[in-house]
């Protein structure tokens, strides 16, 4: 019997974890699989291994784990597969499969365009877009993030850049670059499933930057968030992973 487990990263806040649970429970209603569950990679329970134990108790003989992550960084490419390897060692009779993170997809570009439109983005030559992500030591995540920014810039016909909080290129460096190029208005899109502490830190640093660069206007857009269209992508990832041999 098939089971699908959606694995989120896990938040430091109970509200963030509950937001994930509510979203995934709604997404699971659209998935045609007998057994469905959610889990967290860290900071919350059930863990991936606990979720595996739960679905096996319900009769699962084939378990597919889907990372609920925007980019294929270290958690999707290493951390979650390691957890699956642990489960495989405990339950060698069970077939385990691992899906892919969301990554580059036209739906993501549409969501980003909607976030800009909601803030009255005007396609003005003096406007630029900055996608701000936490950052990952995995180079694959950076490659996909740059691709997303490139596709967005091409569709909008505007300057679109990527900046990170914890690793280069840092987002404040990218803001300085846009300032040197005389852009007057910059739309900031937090590349996140939900806001929280990370988004607050970004906003605080940009507010400090703005004090010494008053000629620029910064407009904060909503994060990608648990958008309804993300459900469609997760279902696609789940159905695709179940077909793997």
From TrEMBL:
CDD domains attached to this UniProt entry: CbiX_SirB_N (cd03416)
Keyword presence, Metal-binding: yes
Pfam families xrefs: CbiX (PF01903)
UniProt keywords, alphabetically: Lyase, Metal-binding
Record GO terms (molecular function): lyase activity; metal ion binding
Protein name (record): Sirohydrochlorin chelatase
Species per Swiss-Prot/TrEMBL record: Bacillus canaveralius
């Amino acid at each position: 019997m098939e089971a699908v487990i959606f694995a989120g990263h896990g938040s430091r806040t109970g509200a963030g974890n509950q937001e994930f649970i509510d979203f995934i429970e709604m997404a699971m209603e659209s998935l045609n699989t007998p057994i469905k569950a959610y889990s967290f990679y860290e900071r919350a329970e059930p863990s991936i291994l606990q979720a595996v134990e739960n679905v096996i108790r319900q009769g699962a003989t084939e378990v597919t784990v889907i990372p609920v992550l925007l980019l294929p960084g270290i958690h999707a490419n290493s951390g979650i597969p390691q957890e699956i390897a642990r489960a495989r060692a405990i339950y060698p009779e069970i077939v385990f499969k691992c899906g892919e993170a969301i990554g580059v997809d036209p739906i993501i570009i549409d969501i980003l365009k909607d976030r800009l439109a909601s803030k009255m983005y005007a396609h003005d030559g003096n406007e630029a877009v900055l996608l701000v992500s936490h950052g990952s030591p995995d180079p694959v995540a950076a490659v996909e993030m740059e691709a997303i920014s490139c596709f967005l810039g091409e569709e909008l016909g505007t300057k679109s850049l990527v900046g990170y909080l914890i690793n280069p290129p840092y987002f404040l460096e990218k803001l300085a670059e846009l300032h040197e190029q005389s852009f007057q208005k910059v739309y900031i899109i937090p590349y996140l499933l939900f806001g929280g502490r990370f988004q607050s830190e970004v906003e605080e640093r940009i507010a400090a930057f703005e004090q010494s660069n008053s000629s620029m206007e910064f407009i904060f857009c909503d994060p990608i968030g648990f958008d309804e269209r993300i459900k469609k992508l997760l279902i696609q990832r789940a159905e695709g992973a179940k077909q793997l041999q």
